[in-house]
Design brief:
- The protein has about 260 residues and is an alpha+beta fold.
- It folds into 2 domains: about 1-160, Protein Transport Mog1p, Chain A; about 185-245.
- Helices cover about 20% and strands about 30% of the residues.
- It contains 4 helices and 17 strands.
- Strand 2 and strand 3 form a beta hairpin.
- Helix 2 crosses helix 3 (about 210-220) and helix 3 runs antiparallel to helix 4 (about 230-245).
- The mean pLDDT is about 90.
- Keywords: Disulfide bond, Glycoprotein.
Length: about 260
């Protein structure tokens, strides 16, 4: 199962919920949260780039006793800059022009496009043992991440709960009362893009509706500006997830599109 985050602060949990959370602090993306021995943790921090779009600034990952720090074009292991491919005690790190990939023998694959999109695949031995923005991986999709006893959270409250407190960092929590307005426009356009013949091999592999919803949110947030980030980030996520699920998306980028 896969948890991912991409584009305009979208998150998809292991259990399949999609939500948006615009925080720019350091957060627990996914960690093994068992009491006794925690096998791994992954933290991320986003920031707005010069175009005002959210990007992942760094990823901090602990796998058993190894600390890995990733930034675009930089891999640091236990405080040392390393060249890739790098292999050490059950962890393989590869880095190409676009993607950084980490394979961990304990049952995890991480893939980052060095910009906005991060995807983590976890072995199902971690079912019901994870916490963080990716949720608890218990197989129940109905937002049970956002329900604690009788209390239900919105996605911003939930995201803020995942913040990693660091003594000297100043960063503002997003305002919980400003939950993102839902958007009902642009459905036809999004549906047309995601059901084009290019993605014929994807339809049965992924939950199309979720990506249509994310695409609609993006289009609304862009207010009609012809901004490739708005349009392309969810479509590229759909394409990535399709390949990951064994599908073969066609070449969807053209000279005039994305």
């Amino acid at each position: 199962y896969v948890c991912s985050t991409w584009g305009n602060n979208h998150f998809k949990t292991f259990d399949g919920d999609i939500y948006q959370f615009p925080g720019i602090c350091e957060y627990n993306f996914v960690s093994d949260c068992r009491e006794a021995y925690r096998e791994f943790s992954i933290h991320i921090q986003r920031a707005l780039n010069s175009n005002g779009h959210p990007e992942i600034q760094y990823i901090l990952m602990k796998i058993k006793d190894i600390m890995v720090y990733l930034k675009p074009n930089l891999v640091v292991v236990d405080g040392r800059i390393v060249k890739t491919p790098y292999y050490s005690s059950g962890v393989l790190i590869e880095s190409g022009e676009i993607y950084t990939k980490i394979y961990a023998k304990l049952g995890m694959v991480l893939m980052w496009n060095q910009q906005d999109a991060l995807m983590v695949e976890l072995d199902n031995k971690f079912n019901n043992h994870t916490c963080g923005l990716c949720g608890d991986y218990n197989g129940i999709p109905i937002y049970n991440e956002f329900i604690d006893g009788d209390v239900s959270y919105n996605s911003i409250t939930y995201g803020n709960l995942q913040k990693i407190s660091k003594p000297n960092t100043k960063c503002e929590d997003p305002d919980e009362t400003q939950a993102l307005p839902s958007c009902n426009k642009h459905r036809d356009e999004c549906q047309r893009l995601l059901t084009s013949s290019t993605f014929a091999d994807c339809r049965l592999r992924l939950n199309l509706e979720m990506y249509i919803q994310a695409c609609m949110q993006d289009m609304c947030a862009c207010n009609g500006t012809e901004d490739s980030f708005c349009l392309c980030s969810t479509i590229s996520e759909y394409s990535r997830q399709c390949s990951h699920a064994g599908g073969r998306p066609g070449e969807w980028r053209t000279q005039n599109f994305c």
